[in-house]
Design goal:
Elements (H helix, E strand, L loop, with lengths): L6 E3 H11 L11 H14 L8 E7 L6 E3 L4 E12 L4 E6 L1 E2 L22 H5 L13 H6 L6 E5 L2 E4 L8 E8 L8 E4 L3 H16 L6 H13 L5 H11 L2 H13 L3
Parallel strand pairs: 6-7
Antiparallel strand pairs: 1-10, 2-9, 3-8, 4-5, 4-9, 7-8
Helix pairs in contact: 1-2, 1-5, 2-5, 5-6, 5-7
Length: 261
Amino acid sequence: MITVNDFIPLGQMLRDVSTRTGDPEYKSGLTRGWYIQVIRDALDSLAFSGYPQRVTLDFDFPKVSFRMDWPKGVFNIQEVYGINGDDCSVTNAQNIYWKREFNPLPYGKGYTAARQESGSANDAASDIVNTDPFNGKFFSFLAMEGETLYYFNVQNGVLFFSNTCSTFDKIRIVCSGTYGDIDNLPCVPRPLKKFVMDYGRHEFYIAKANESPGLLKMAEKAYQDMYDVKVGSWWQAMKFMKSVDKKKNEDLDEYNRRGNW
């Protein structure tokens, strides 16, 4: 019988991880949303699939800043759409693509990215290769036909949107999460707690190492705590994951999705 006692609520896990890093009030410059991402990434690295129920949440589009703090109720983002209209009558919906290292200035302008559209009609005609994976080689021809692409990225727990998203009234996020207080969301099985905390410590020290190079030694210690072949928390976590057979995994999934916690 699976009960709420088999899981650690997200709020408690956030407090545990941020306390271990010496950042319980998120004053280091790393946001609460960043910590949520780290906890999710730790679970993903174990191929953990027992996420909370799938929900659809709408938020007003940030038309001034084109930036949104990690949305309330969201744990693991699965789909992002820009929509017009209201909850009962959506008049337009467009997929917003995740773009690797998408990093715009305020108002979604002047962005840089690892892969970026560029060039003009003449460039396309002269066979200049375009590096953008969605626009492809002949971006200019697509643009002349009126095709518009919409992008977002997440950095430090903040969602960034391209200026092409300015036409939307709302952002619709399909995710693993909850309609209520996400802090009460039971998301981490107790046998995985030590690994998630070690993972969080390692990511924190790596993120802050540019400001304080001495943290690299602490990051190395956290890494050893995870992957020591005798007592590493990763090995212990994987031992638990291997013990979770298909039936148990299905029960975990059903328990989380019902939301009766």
